[in-house]
Design brief:
mainly alpha, 0% strand, transmembrane helix, membrane, Cold_shock_CspA, transmembrane
Length: 91
């Protein structure tokens, strides 16, 4: 049951991460109010790093900003580490 909940959480966060990149890129093109960078990074660090990373390169958005090039992959590695630790600790 816990694995199902964790999987649903990560799926949801990655959809949100991907969607926020798409929405922010759309708003950037239209010169509208944007989603703050802190919010985009927060989505990645809350478990949506893979979706955010895919969104970055699908929409060519934030790919030249060092913060995103460094922190989004770091968030992915962080969650891989957390999940690996939990799997090892609870087996």
């Amino acid at each position: 049951m816990l694995i199902l909940l964790a999987s649903a959480y990560y799926l949801m966060m990655n959809v949100i991460g991907f969607s926020t990149m798409a929405i922010d890129k759309s708003k950037a093109v239209k010169h509208q109010w944007r989603i703050p960078e802190a919010t985009l990074l927060l989505c990645a660090f809350l478990g949506g790093g893979i979706g955010s990373w895919i969104g970055m390169y699908t929409f060519h958005h934030k790919t030249h900003k060092w913060k995103f090039k460094l922190l989004v992959p770091f968030s992915i590695l962080l969650h891989i580490g957390i999940i690996s630790y939990l799997i090892y600790y609870f087996r």
